[in-house]
């Protein structure tokens, strides 16, 4: 499975050079929000124009 397919499926990204390169080039986006316990949560997904 390709990196973008993994991101699309799991909504999670590990911190390594390949994923960082995709993020910096905007192949996928990282979203952050604060949950009810006031903890920062994050998730990722493939950029809509690439999908």
Question: Could you provide a short overview of the structure?
Answer:
By secondary structure, this protein is an alpha+beta fold. It has helices spanning 3-10, 17-24; strands at 28-34, 40-46.
Characterise this structure.
This protein is α+β, with helices and mostly antiparallel strands and 51 residues long. The protein has one domain (3-46). It is 31% helix and 27% strand. It has 2 helices and 2 strands, in the order ααββ. The protein has a two-stranded antiparallel ribbon. A hairpin with a 5-residue loop joins strand 1 (28-34) and strand 2 (40-46). It is elongated, with a radius of gyration of 12 Å. The relative contact order is 0.25.
Present the secondary structure layout.
Layout: H1 3-10, H2 17-24, E1 28-34, E2 40-46
Q: If you average the pLDDT, what whole number results?
A: 94
Distance between the termini: 15 Å
- Residue stretches low in confidence (pLDDT < 50, at least 5 long) are none
Care to count the β-strands? 2
**Strand arrangement, major sheet:** 1-2
Radius of gyration over alpha carbons? 12 Å
Specify the biggest β-sheet: 2 strands, antiparallel
Order of helices and strands: HHEE
Alpha-beta content class: alpha+beta
Tally of domains? 1
What percent of residues are in strands?
25-35%
Helix content: 25-40%
Based on CA inertia axes, which overall geometry fits?
Answer: elongated
Structure annotation, total helices: 2
